[in-house]
């Protein structure tokens, strides 16, 4: 049935013809798939592929993303001299799913598995900048950054924060995208303000964006 819907919206009669199923069986299966969000309805009431399929595809892409993240983050750390992380959103939080720590000296240490809020930090800005307006606006009500900050992130393709998440810490982040263009994660570098300055993007945005693009490209190659 899902294969039948791959070519576009279909009425129940169309599904019966495409699948060879009896009409009651086709209807029962379509309704069950709709319940699990694998199938949805368009404005004309026709059956279409549901949002859950996109979520599953994104999850598969994120597994490939983790496999590619290690060397990319290590290279970013070596180029910038700062700790590098990969962040993924989970509801109202963001999770550090991969990291490459600066080996010595003053650094911003964020262990893999760390869970931070979406209220502050350059990674939170990136993960919200391309979110659906309704969802973004709900989180912005308690954020330390304004909606105009997200407009700037979308315009230039990267974000920066200075003392938002923690006093004395600055960071720069850029989006990692799926082959369809959806933002799946944020690549970041973070470190003490005394090294990153109050304009960390001027120093590290090119390297962070290049790392994010390398990860996005790895997902595009895997999808081909």
UniProtKB/TrEMBL annotation:
Keywords on record: DNA-binding, Transcription, Transcription regulation
Ranges of residues in domain IclR-ED: 52-221
Ribonucleoprotein keyword on record: no
A Pfam cross-reference name: HTH_IclR
One MF term in the entry's GO annotations: DNA binding
UniProt keyword Signal, yes or no: no
Superkingdom per UniProt: Bacteria
PROSITE patterns: ICLR_ED (PS51078)
Protein name: DNA-binding IclR family transcriptional regulator
